[in-house]
Amino acid sequence: MNERGEDKLLRLARGGAPEVAAEPLDLGLRVRGLRKARNWTLEQAAQQAGLARSTLSKIENGQMSPTYDALKKLALGLDIPVPQLFTQPSGAQVNGRMATTLRGEGQKVATTTYEHELLAQSLTQKSMLPYRARVRARSIDEFDGWVRHDGEEFLYVLTGVIRLYTEFYEPAEMARGDSAYYDASMGHNVVSISEEDATILWVTSRL
Question: Which among 43, 129, 48 is positioned nearest to 86, based on CA atoms?
Fold first, then answer.
């Protein structure tokens, strides 16, 4: 994660209580913490993610930058959305905070099926995880099974037309202005069915 510039931090804090700038997140430490929270050995975590043990070890020790494919496998193995790999672990709630993310200035995280833009990244103890996503996938076959994770999720279509696939319901075709709220532990995937890549706003609770 790239460190934010001083003037950008000032813009984020403007208009409300000042926010202490978060330290850049160490992806390796974050992955190790998620693994240990599950009481998994390095070997067990590597098997869950479908990665070589040596690859996971190098990621945890900061000896390599994972590819988008590896990030996707890690998230699936840990049973979390990809953006949660780049968020600080939650802690005690802090009140009186605000963050503004200017257009196009969210942190970009891309996979083969989605391109995420993480929002409000200067807040480190959020109970919600907001992000904008460009939907690249055109077929459910592009996914390696269902995406599912703890919490609840809200989806709002910004542009284009999507098809929302869920584990227990018929696929739902949704256009600009349509929304869905669902249990995120239920398997779900989204594909674009318009000519252009659709864009959506996702808000995931961090239960």
Answer: 129
- Quote the CATH superfamily of domain 107-205: Jelly Rolls (2.60.120.10)
Q: Do domains 27-86 and 107-205 have the same CATH topology?
A: no
From CA 182, how far away is CA 95, in angstroms rounded? 27
Question: Which burial class, exposed, middle or buried, applies to 191 when counting CB atoms under 10 A from its CB (0-12, 13-18, 19+)?
Answer: buried
* Domain 27-86 CATH (choose: 1.10.260.40, 1.20.1560.10, 3.40.630.40, 1.20.1250.20): 1.10.260.40
Residue 11 has pLDDT above 80, yes or no: no
List, for residues 79-91, the tens digit of each pLDDT value.
888 888 877 665 5
C-alpha 207/C-alpha 202 separation (Å) is: 16
